[in-house]
Amino acid sequence: MTKRIAYCVSDHTGVTVEAVTKSVLAQFPALECSLIALPFIDSPEKAREAAARIAATPGALAFSTLTDPALRAALREGGVLPFDVFDLVVPAVEAALGQPATPSGGHTHGMTGDYESRMDAVNFSLALDDGLQPQRLDQADLILIGVSRVGKTPTALYLALQYGLRVANYPLTPDDLERGSLPDVLLTHLPRLRALTLSGERLAAIRQVRYPDSRYASLAQCREELVAAARLFQQHAVPVLDATRMSVEEIAARLRSRP
Fold it and tell me: Partners of 7 in the beta sheet?
């Protein structure tokens, strides 16, 4: 397997360029790449330093989302020819719109107009984590339900931080599962419920890390809870997402795209 180093160069946090780089390199399964992030490259001096580092790495790949043409030029002058998102995409968009782009670094992930709403959403998700403050469920955009440790909390927080959605999560306890019906507090919010599930093996592995060799982490217990929860989801027509082989990012994107 071919091994390479891929540098992700950005004038801000690097979130965008890292996501693009991972998506592109995933198309080359015979290539084993280690990613190195170079964020906040926001001056010609920093760009020259980045170029020197990249050029000194044999066979390195460079991906860039530098918005300032002068910074991109500094990379090229340093002997680096990056795969630059703006160089590749912006000219085509300019041609389609019939107007030039105005470089403005950091707007994608910076202190934009939706910053406060995203922080508010994060605070909401933290306040309503794990079934807390059920009286506020009517304020939620989505309510994630499922048995313990299926990924409700990280998914709720990612949806809040990335998309500004106010997401609550509510765990289904063994008592809830034995009753054969969703808790009353959830029944009044059925349109906003989304269920997460995992394979029994995956859930047992996750629980084993937290509570080793416990009944809670046993495969039999996990399977029993998942089957009982699945019956409740079907009974109340709650949309279900099997997240066994998904990252938090993919889970969040799929939940967000569902009506």
Answer: 36, 62
Domain count, the chain: 2
User: For residues 59 and 4, is the Cβ–Cβ distance under 8 A?
Assistant: yes
Predicted model pTM: 0.69
Q: Which two tokens stand for residue 138?
A: 């009517």
CATH code at position 26: 3.40.50
Contacts for 126-129 with beta carbons within 8 Å, 24 or more apart?
Answer: 126/157, 128/168, 128/169, 129/153, 129/156, 129/168, 129/169
> How many Cβ atoms are within 10 Å of 141's Cβ, its own excluded?
16
Residue 226 lies in a domain: yes
Q: What is the pLDDT along the chain (259 residues), one digit of tens a residue?
A: 678 999 999 998 888 899 889 889 988 988 889 999 999 999 999 999 999 999 999 999 999 999 888 999 999 999 999 999 888 888 888 899 999 887 665 554 444 457 788 889 999 999 999 999 999 999 999 999 999 999 999 999 999 988 899 999 999 999 999 998 999 999 999 999 999 999 999 999 999 999 999 999 999 999 999 999 999 999 999 999 999 999 898 999 999 877 6
